[in-house]
Amino acid sequence: MDLVGACKAFVNVSERGSFTLGAAAARMPQPVASRRIAALEKHLGARLFDRSTRRATLTPFGRDMLPSAKRLVRIAEDMEHDAERAKLTPLLLAVPEICCTRDLALLDAEARRQGIHLVFHPAPPAERAELLRSQQVRAAITEVPPGEGRWSVPLGLASATALHTETVYVETLRAGRTDRSSRRRRIWIQPEDDVPHIRDRMIRVRDTVGLQPAQVTVAIALTSALAEVLGSTDFLLSSPQQAEELDLCWRPIGEIRLVRSFDVFAGIGDDAERIRTRLHAGIARCLGASPENGAAA
């Protein structure tokens, strides 16, 4: 039996003295209201209304039960109101700083259509993990080792100057014996890629091909790294989408295949799975991954 629905019918009929008017106030057909009240009477074991009169008159038992029915209806209405408010509570999501404003806005709009209200907190990888651990955000898009994420993004080298080869080999940055220039071309690793499975592998390639230590450098910020690249022949380690946004020429790296790999993690409940499944394509767009399945092409 629908106890709440039956109590709504009972309260509204009693207040209006009519099954027809009470049913209309409860927003249900009159036969439905009558059946629900009859079921409530059977459940409680006594008549609520005196049916010997044309008006819906309460029996003494009905008058005694009316306050309890009103409390139950009020509690149910309060619960429905609280549920609507809870749905509108913003979900604070830590996101990579590389996500552009337009893509985040599109993700937010898509989330609202799914009944999810997002507020973004851009941060570098280590800070996103700490924000989630300390419960300052409800969920975070976090970098994970290759093969463990829902979204993967290829990385390569981007330059402000035209590149006339299909692939850039790191070894070509090694200075020759006749090169007397004091400044060597460098590869700048931006903060989003300052994670072991990217940074350490890039440094191993540097050492293997014989570059100087300073030729592969972790930048303090993407802005400063981009300034270095724009004013020289240096390279920025980036994704193809990011290189296009920054008006740089991008090529894959010859000696190694590097990828950013991401997943969503949340502190409580099913927030992570809701975000993964409902907003998969929108997150892929923000990260520069393939929209179909999150894997990089």
From TrEMBL:
InterPro entries given in the database record: LysR_HTH_N, WH-like_DNA-bd_sf, WH_DNA-bd_sf
Superkingdom of source: Bacteria
PROSITE patterns cross-referenced by the UniProt entry: HTH_LYSR
Coiled-coil annotated residue ranges, if any: none
GO MF, one example: transcription cis-regulatory region binding
Domain HTH lysR-type: from-to ranges: 1-59
Assigned keywords, A-Z: DNA-binding, Transcription, Transcription regulation
Pfam families: HTH_1
Family membership noted in the UniProt record: Belongs to the LysR transcriptional regulatory family.
Protein name: LysR family transcriptional regulator
Natural source organism: Nocardiopsis ansamitocini
